[in-house]
Amino acid sequence: MAGSCVVFGIARSVPAQTYTGFANGAVTEHLAWNDTSGNLINAHDGGILWANGKYHWYGMALRPLPVTNKLDGGQKTTIGVVMYSSKDLYNWTYEGVVLACSPDPKSPLYGPMRFERPKILYNARTKQYVMWFHYVGYPGDHGVTMGAGEAGVAVSSRINGPYTFKGYTRPIDAKGFVRDSTLFQDDDGSAYFIYDRDVREPGPDFGRVLHIVKLTDDYLGFSDKWTKIANAVRREAPVMIKRNGVYYLVTSAETGWQDNAANYYRATKIMGPYTELGNPTSGPDADVTYHTQGTWEFAVHGHKDEVIFMAERHIPAKMTDSSYIFLPVRFGPESTLALPYVTAWRWKPWPK
Prior knowledge:
The protein has no helices and 26 strands. By secondary structure, it is mostly beta strands. The strands form eight sheets. The protein has a four-stranded antiparallel beta sheet, with no helix packed on it. The protein has a four-stranded antiparallel beta sheet with strand order 9-10-11-12, with no helix packed on it. A hairpin with a 2-residue loop joins strand 17 and strand 18. It is globular, with a radius of gyration of 19 Å.
């Protein structure tokens, strides 16, 4: 890739050009990625979905400010969820805001707020695109009161929106606050909301543990089918991958904006049980997941077993400088998974 980049917060310029592959840089670099208009891509902690002959990359638009619990925190948005499209995965055209913040102080979408970790699935039965996210209402600070830790949902008949906000709720019951979350669509079309459930009430459910909840058939609500991954305590940034009937759940530890080691879990059924297998990364800086945190996975269109893992290298001092990392997922013998670091690469059919 080309454009400007930031190395430990120091900006430098490189010539503008058409991108011909993924450029992650060294594990200490933060490489900027511009859209086809020359503007910095600002779509954080989202995902990529294939539709209408193109890839669609969406995420929350952050602000060029540091992380703070004040109104001007860079981890919050006053824009909303935005989208880009591409035919080659490298050159992205801005599609616009697909779920916007509201200027109305009485609106649940009044900013600054957070549509954290937005994820979109297509429901073939209803022919609707459904977006779920970790909803944090104004002023955008995590909390325990209603509206500060929920699951929000929006829907559209078109991949690039606009999406209509349908409200927010808590899966399972009201005592479990929602933190980091993701979506997963199984081969049979059923969909699941996977999230870090935070329970503060004393009792057997106390603490923060990853849970999986099956969505209703229309993907707009939660069913009564769910499971607790009891050995996934204080894990966040969940990313679910499935291959050959095996489910792999890649996670991060909860250390705020500090880097930490990833680990992953494996199961042969979506509801478990899940076995913890350790860190899927290797080599220099594997103990901090190459200074990244996972956000999504997707298969290259037409190549279901060639999976790309999306992550971000956050810069708390200026959130829009956070860079996007794309890694090839390597599946090994005995149903194992690895995420090797690659500084620069271009997708092509991988050796089997």
